[in-house]
Every structure is written in structure tokens, then in C-alpha cells.
Design a protein that fits this description.
By secondary structure, this protein is mostly beta strands. It contains 1 helix and 19 strands. The chain has 2 domains: 122 residues, Immunoglobulin-like (Sandwich), CATH 2.60.40; 110 residues, Immunoglobulin-like (Sandwich). Strands 1, 4, 5, 8 and 10 form a 5-stranded mixed β-sheet that branches. A 5-stranded mixed β-sheet has the order 3-2-6-7-9, with no helix packed on it. Strands 14-11-17-18-19 form a 5-stranded mixed β-sheet, with no helix packed on it.
């Protein structure tokens, strides 16, 4: 009897072992939101397709940011269109439990061909937005940003994106309320993005200069919160995109524009 009891326990342990090896771990959903910065008078319709099915549809006006949406992790086909005109077709990958901001940017030109691409063996790069850092003229493009907070949660984190087509390099700066701490946010060319930087929480003035010129072309003031990511999208005013810039400020929870 004792032998049979021990034998049954052995089979149970062995069964659990093979279950751990063979059973798939649960895959968490991915979350994403969309910043619509394609310069256009008309709203853009963004769709995600998977296995021939429409998984997501959203129509956004210029300068808008959607709320986060959850979808199963995996590979999707993203399409951006206005009316019957398709402006962007692209394959993307979203990781399990990932959190992303999709940034649509560029200057659609009448008669321009659709900007189509698939990533194939470089699919992993899109999760960090690297594919969109390569210059591609002013065609409509997609940049995917990772919105997960890593590191010291006693600080705030900030980054910025140069999303103003036709505008030369911009220098970004962050200044705290007491003006004792001034941080350079890196000089960027269109359509680059900076990495996240740790900054002290509190009231902070963030501004951008045009190239080597010290004249401020964009500015925003925010009360930065502990453990929060902030992304500043610098993009043009519609109808005056070369001379007038604005800032879309996106945190993990909210949206503000000035």
C-alpha cells in the first residue's frame, strides 16, 4: 500500500513537471493609444486588422490623442486613411502586457503614393519606434513609443518627439520652478525622439529653441508627478506648419495640449 501511495505521488509530480513544460503561459493584452499628428484638415481613420478581422477602428482629428485601448498581444496590420485614400499600410507587433503610444506624423501630399511597409525579421524594432527614425521624406509615418515606466519611481520621466515636418533641428530644455535645475533634453532632427530622462517632480517649464537660435518656438509648463511618464510631442499648427509650433503633452493617464 505504501509503495502504491509513493508511486502515485511520483506520477503526480511527473505530471506537474510535464504540464509546466508543455502548457503555454497566459499571454497578457497590450495597451495602446494614438497621437494623430499627420498634418491634415481632414480627420484620419486608424484601423487594426488581425487574421482578416477588424480589431480596432478610431477616427481622430489633427492634434488629438486617443485613450488607451487593450487588444490581444501579437502581430497586426495597421491602416491609416482619410476618406477613400489610404495613406499608410504597415505591419506592427505588440508585446504581451506592453503599453504603447502610436504617433502618426508627416505631411500628406496630394497624389502621393501610399506609404507601405512590412517589417519581417526586424519586427522587434518597431516596439521602440526605431523603424520610424529613418528619414523617409515627409510621407505619412508611424512611430511606436514604449510607455512602461522603468527605474526610480521617486522621480518623473520626460521625453520628447520632433513631429514637425519641414522644421529644422530643435533644442529642448527643462527648467524647474526655482530655475536652479536646467536640463538639456537633446537636440533632435525631424522625426527623431529622445530617450526618457529622470527629472525632479514639481512645476517645470519646458521649451524648445529653433536650431542654434535662442528664440523659443514652443513652450509648455507642467506640474510633474512622481512615478509618471510624460511625452511632449512638438508639432505644427495646422495651416502654418513651418512658422508656428505647439506641444501635445501626454502622460500615462491624461492628455493636455497648449
Amino acid at each position: 500500500m505504501r509503495y502504491i501511495k509513493y508511486k502515485n505521488i511520483g506520477f503526480l509530480v511527473l505530471g506537474l513537471f510535464f504540464c509546466v513544460l508543455g502548457c503555454k503561459q497566459p499571454i497578457g493584452d497590450a495597451q495602446f493609444r494614438i497621437a494623430q499628428l499627420l498634418v491634415s484638415e481632414k480627420p484620419m481613420t486608424i484601423q487594426l486588422f488581425k487574421d482578416g478581422k477588424t480589431m480596432y477602428t478610431q477616427t481622430l482629428s489633427f492634434g488629438a490623442l486617443s485613450s488607451y485601448t487593450s487588444v490581444p498581444a501579437g502581430t497586426y496590420f495597421l491602416r491609416v486613411s482619410t476618406g477613400k485614400k489610404v495613406l499608410l499600410d504597415q505591419e506592427i507587433g505588440l508585446g504581451s502586457k506592453g503599453k504603447y503610444s502610436f504617433c502618426l506624423y508627416g505631411l500628406p501630399v496630394k497624389g502621393e503614393l501610399t506609404n507601405s511597409s512590412t517589417l519581417g525579421n526586424t519586427l522587434h524594432k518597431i516596439a521602440e519606434g526605431e523603424e520610424a527614425s529613418n528619414p523617409n521624406g515627409l510621407l505619412p509615418k508611424l512611430k511606436i513609443l514604449n510607455d512602461i515606466f522603468y527605474g526610480d519611481r521617486s522621480t518623473a520621466k520626460i521625453r520628447w518627439v520632433h513631429a514637425a515636418p519641414g522644421v529644422q533641428s530643435l533644442n529642448g530644455y527643462s527648467v524647474t520652478a526655482n530655475a536652479k535645475d536646467t536640463i538639456s533634453l537633446k537636440k533632435l532632427e525631424y522625426p527623431e525622439k529622445s530617450s526618457f530622462m529622470d527629472v525632479k517632480p514639481g512645476k517645470t517649464d519646458v521649451f524648445w529653441n529653433l536650431g542654434s537660435n535662442k528664440r523659443k518656438v514652443a513652450r509648455v509648463n507642467r506640474d510633474l508627478q512622481v512615478g509618471t511618464l510624460y511625452t511632449f510631442f512638438v508639432f505644427p499648427q495646422r495651416g502654418n506648419y513651418l512658422d508656428s509650433l505647439q506641444v501635445l503633452t501626454a502622460s500615462a493617464e491624461n492628455l493636455e495640449k497648449r
